Amino acid sequence: MPKRVQVFDMEGNKTRQMNVNENIFAIEPNEVVMHAVVVNYLANQRQGTQSTLTRTEVRGGGRKPWRQKGTGHARQGSIRAPQWRHGGVALGPKPRDYSYSLNKKVKRLALKSALSSKFADKEMIVVEDIKLDSYKTKTIVNMLNALEANKKALIVTGEVDNKVVKSAGNIPGVKTSVVNTLNVYDILNHDALVLTVDAVKKIEEVYA
Predict the structure, then answer these.
(1) SS3 of 13, please?
(2) Cβ-proximal residues to 113 (8 Å cutoff; 6+ apart), any chain
(3) CA torsion angle 108 112 113 115 (round to 10)
(4) Residue 53: strand, helix, or coil
């Protein structure tokens, strides 16, 4: 039996119900896979540009501070050794690439799990279409208020719509996305998932 979801207009009025693919929106969410994909996403976002100077890279310290024996001090070869003030850092971070890849099956299962989780928790809202005549933040705010999605909301459209992107861009907690850039982290990181009917159909085309 297909799953059905309520469809709204931009004013929050119920317009109709539509069927959604239960293999995408009604599977048993796999939390282990979702966690793995979120960790992978965050790792791939890391720049890895942090860097510290080792004893060989700190300026100075070329001369032995005192002779090897007879001073009563411990032997020292350089004032830039890690135990000295202004010395180099031992085993500090160096530039590196933190990114790694997961296979496609894992990514697909995680996305389906995230969508199903939102559907099951009644945090997925489907809108007929989001049409703006001009760049107007107030229109998006009013729509989200009408849909009771005025907390952290992720708005997903089928195609890039610059009016929607720019109108929602300065609303705190609101982010826009299109189907081909949708990711598990963004879905789980927002309280409400607002999808257009076109976005739902394209998700079903790609992931069915």
Answers:
(1) coil
(2) 27, 28, 29, 30, 31, 33, 34, 184
(3) 140
(4) coil
